[in-house]
Design a protein that fits this description.
There is one protein chain. This protein is of the alpha/beta class. The protein has one domain. Helix content is 35%, strand content 25%. The chain has four helices and four strands. The protein has a four-stranded parallel beta sheet. Helix 2 links the parallel strand 2 and strand 3. The longest helix is centred in the last third of the chain and has 16 residues. It is globular and about 35 Å long. The model has no long low-confidence stretch (mean pLDDT 91).
């Protein structure tokens, strides 16, 4: 993990299909190393809704049942935020490499 300094707003996007809700505390702790989390979003299919709804502060976005629906929705929302009201830091949490191109593009926009 990179060590940052608390310098600004942080947007946290979680792939809720691959990262279980019990990791929320660790996610927030890591995000706070970069600044103050002001957007906390989790994306996933309906069966993952209940555990994430119980986590204070996180908003869950149901992506339907399509394959990779959560990944697409997360990527669209992150790019939209980057274009309209970019935070100083994006934190993308997943257990796979599906978001590497998104991370590269967000970094290029800085």
């Amino acid at each position: 993990m990179f060590q940052g300094s608390a310098i600004g707003r942080v947007a946290v996007f979680v792939d809720g299909d691959n990262v279980p809700a019990p990791h929320a505390t660790a996610i927030l702790t890591a995000a706070r190393e970069w600044g103050e989390p002001h957007i906390l979003r989790t994306y996933g299919q309906a069966q993952n809704l209940t555990p994430w709804q119980k986590v204070p502060g996180f908003r869950f976005f149901c992506a339907g049942m399509e394959k990779n629906g959560a990944d697409l929705l997360l990527a669209i929302d992150a790019i939209e935020l980057a274009l309209t009201d970019p935070p100083e830091t994006f934190v993308i949490v997943s257990s796979d490499r599906d978001f590497r191109h998104l991370a590269i593009r967000l970094r290029e926009r800085r």
